[in-house]
Specification:
403 residues; alpha/beta; Nucleotidyltransferase, domain 5; five-stranded mixed β-sheet; 14 helices; 37% helix
């Protein structure tokens, strides 16, 4: 399909609520062009925390033993209303008064089954993100593109990670091999070949937990959602033997393509980590938090050392984990002499990266551009990701986008 890129800029809202369940990130960004010619400008970012009741409900429906079909159905709509409020808030505080013409929304992942599992006599891959995009389109009177994972899964892919396309078009260098590292609830990275010389296929994968386990331990030991700046973890002593034992687990040993989520690294995994620490004589909260940070740092570097055949010149980190100074310090020590910096140094706010990514994916949907990366997800072909939901007036920013 030939791209239908617009001759003029599109102002788009990208929305992300990740596996850490901390809230809703909204990025307002102006986009022109497509693929390697994509240009980003005017990035603004805001974040709205989830109300405690919503966060607890999302935790319940994300676990098979506590999930309710009634609560799942209700949350699908309730989240769309929260997304609408977050987008309106971002627009009200924006320095740019021009309207948003399109929204790209990931939705809240409540279950992800990347490897085929038997379902009524057939092996099936599936994933479920809630926060209905059709409801959102009608609430905002703006076209919305959402549900980005399913097209890739229909072609045998894992439907994740989704950020490699963005990394390729926004962070690649003509002279450097780079590793774009995202530290959300789950850690994932994309290894970017140079745009000038080797033009090899990118490598990307979820490496394991980033903030998810540390946040669960923070709630357990500190009574708060996260250890701000990693300040408590920095005073503890990591139990390296427990970390080594956990890294022997099947997910860390599995070769890519691979993706994961709360199903493997949620509260049950955090509880298992606590049990291992107790059995080895470690009981202090600071030591537990230090162990969680060490697990994240070492799992990232383990995946890099094991599955990336050629060294990179630079690591560019993003996501909420970049605010954990202790985690960033450990990553810097383990990756040395390769420098570890943040995406802020490249003109994109670290907290905004994934939200900007979904603005880009929505933009490219209208352009008719395929945005999955089969070398990463395992899909059998390139495909156009997302579903388009129209507002009441049925208008699109550019009608030729669906020809």
């Amino acid at each position: 399909m030939a791209p239908h890129t617009s001759a003029r800029p599109r102002r788009i809202a990208g929305v992300m609520s990740g596996t850490s369940l901390d809230g809703i990130d909204v990025a307002l960004v102006t986009l022109t062009g497509s693929g390697r010619m994509l240009e980003l400008s005017g990035i603004e970012h805001s974040s709205q925390p989830y109300p405690d009741a919503i966060r607890e409900a999302l935790l319940r429906v994300s676990q098979p033993e506590t999930s309710s079909v009634l609560e799942l159905s209700q949350l699908n709509v309730r989240l769309a209303h929260l997304y609408a409020e977050a987008i309106r808030h971002a627009m009200q505080r924006s320095a740019d008064a021009s309207p948003v013409e399109l929204v790209g929304i990931h939705g809240q992942t409540v279950h992800h089954v990347p490897e085929p599992v038997e379902c009524c006599g057939q092996l099936t891959r599936s994933t479920l993100q809630i926060g209905d995009p059709s409801t959102l389109a009608n609430l905002l009177n703006v076209a919305v593109v959402g549900d980005f994972r399913m097209a890739d899964m229909a072609l045998g892919g894992q439907g994740a990670p989704l950020v490699p396309y963005f990394d390729l078009v926004a962070l690649s260098s003509p002279t450097e091999r780079r590793l774009a590292l995202n530290l959300g609830g789950i850690a994932n990275f994309t290894v970017l070949p140079t745009t000038g010389g080797d033009r090899g296929k990118p490598t990307a994968m979820d490496t394991g937990p980033a903030n998810m386990v540390a946040d669960a331990l923070s709630e357990r030991y500190l009574g708060r959602r996260y250890d701000e700046g990693g300040s408590v973890a920095a005073t503890g002593r990591a139990n390296v033997e427990v970390v080594k034992r956990l890294l022997e687990g099947p997910y860390f040993q599995q070769a890519p393509p691979k993706s994961t989520g709360r199903e493997q690294f949620g509260r049950q995994f955090a509880g298992h980590l606590v049990e291992l620490l107790g059995a080895s004589g470690t009981s202090a909260g600071a030591d537990a938090l230090a162990t969680a940070v060490e697990l994240t740092a070492r799992s990232v570097v383990l995946a890099y050392n094991r599955f990336v055949p050629e060294p990179v010149n630079r690591v560019i980190a993003s996501g909420g984990g970049t605010r954990n100074a202790f985690l960033m310090r450990r990553l810097g020590e383990l990756f040395a002499p390769v420098p570890v910096e943040t995406i802020d140094d490249h003109g994109i706010p670290s907290q905004a990266k994934e939200a900007v990514c979904f603005a880009v994916l929505a933009h490219e949907f209208l352009n008719g551009a395929p945005t999955n990366v089969p070398a990463v997800t395992g899909a059998s072909a390139y495909t156009r990701l997302g579903k388009l939901c129209l507002p009441p007036n049925g208008a699109l920013p550019w009608q030729e986008a669906i020809r």
